[in-house]
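Page 42, continued from yesterday. The earlier attempt failed because a stray header line got pasted into the input along with the sequence. Redoing it now with the clean sequence only.
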Amino acid sequence: MLVGSVFPGPAVSFDPEYLVRNLVAVIGSHNYAPADPDEAVGFLCRTGMRDQLAALVSEPLALTGDRRRVRDGLPWHPPEGRDRAVNAAVQLPSGVMSAGADSDRPAPAKNMVWIPGGTFSMGSNDFYPEERPVHEVAVDGFWMDTHVVTVAEFRRFVSDTGHVSTAEIAPDAAEFPEAPDHMLVPGSLVFTPPQQRVPLDDVSRWWSWTPGAYWRRPEGPGSDIDGRQRHPVTHVSYVDAAAYAAWAGKALPTEAEWEFAARGGLDQAVFAWGNEFMPKGRHRANTWQGAFPHENLEEDGFSRTSPVGSFPPNGYGLFDVTGNVWEWTRDLHTADNAEHSPVVTTSCCTTSNPVQGEGGFAAGRFRVIKGGSHLCAPNYCLRYRPAARQRESVDTSTSHIGFRCMVPGDE
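This time it went through. Structure tokens are written below.
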């Protein structure tokens, strides 16, 4: 059991119901309820919540009455100072790296964790051509947002700056000379599922240019963001994401930084949590179940986006790194993921801190997006994986693309 590897010493008997019920309160701000003690302990270790773990481990040993209170749904708080010595003995399970373990500095902003630098095998040779070839990459340590930017966070940015998103600006007729006049109006791309099975060779069968759709009207006129404040903000272009990052004193991650962080220390695992899609029969990300695009079974509980933190985090404490929404990176898109420039090599075969396209928009129109979305399905787009990558135009916005930010470790 994981608890045994975290707390060396005499075997301890844990009450799963007790531990899980307490953890719901302890990590409730993440909207994450662990399924069992192993998963709960792993979460607390990875996210640095060691005091809480120490209290939860020590309390069940003696406080039978308090355990009953928890089972009955009554308030419970661990006595201050009890068994704090346990905290010093907490060790991470083998193979799991602790976010923040390599940085003594406070996080530069709320909801950021430290991603320790390292070398990893980037890409995949097993799925789509643009992910090839697997190649070794080294990145320096950096800070990463634990979740994608939410509707509430983006709304504060707009309120503070008056930013007008790309979707709120009519396309330039000179850039789209063949577009009919009725499409040269502010709007964005919205996923609209067909009513029956359709061929998968034409995305216009399920993507619709929707006049009036933007981040406040995710499905177009008549829709709103009520009840979606903790959902990822969508209908944001690369231009919008870069503007938000600058306002927040952050940056968008490079593709290499994003993939390194998304893997959570699991080098070359298929998914952000390992090689099994549904460990213990549980969904670990917001993806599509059923035959895309007409049949959405919603077995994971969501038909579109989900609140950030609805699924367990990866090994670095990052939520929703795959599924939910695609995420912008600052790299220009290239035919394969080994074409980075400028390149600084630290050995004959390791690329260090690669980034493609620092020259700005003039260097090209397409940036890399990562992580897949709630619309990714095995029968069409099995891209809810750290290695997955797609290109998107810098001025495009859709109902399934968002972003998160980072801060370099030397700032």
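Notes: The longest helix spans residues 16-26.
Reminder to self: strip header lines before submitting.
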